[in-house]
């Protein structure tokens, strides 16, 4: 299965709908093989279902016969893969796993590769700085 060919076809379809590809991965769920296409969007189930059919029609002949197609959106708790994506979240709530902090916080600023976050411990506000390279995982978060 030529993933690059499939990716090119999917990107072309997504452009027609002003959507962006987040990732394409192959995975196994039990005995099933899945081609998972994730788009960076928020949409209703009906819209996603129509897009799924359009993508499937376009790439069906390019997929191995033993694979199923899964098309989904990244969702609201979207992982942030690059420093630029992190910078775009200044002022937002994020979940961070690092060597000095694990949990939800507000991203206050990013200067060079240094993130400033604020959070509460036992009702008291705290503010710390974390180097981007020390972050193991970061994603958007929902504040309740």
TrEMBL record:
Keywords: Cytoplasm, Ribosome biogenesis. The keyword Cytoplasm applies. SUPFAM superfamilies: YhbC-like, C-terminal domain, YhbC-like, N-terminal domain. It is found in: Cytoplasm. Gene3D superfamilies: Ribosome maturation factor RimP, C-terminal domain. Pfam families: RimP_N (PF02576). Its main location: cytoplasm. Residues 12-77 form the Ribosome maturation factor RimP N-terminal domain. One of its GO terms (biological process) is ribosomal small subunit biogenesis. Required for maturation of 30S ribosomal subunits. Belongs to the RimP family. This is Ribosome maturation factor RimP. It comes from Acholeplasma oculi.
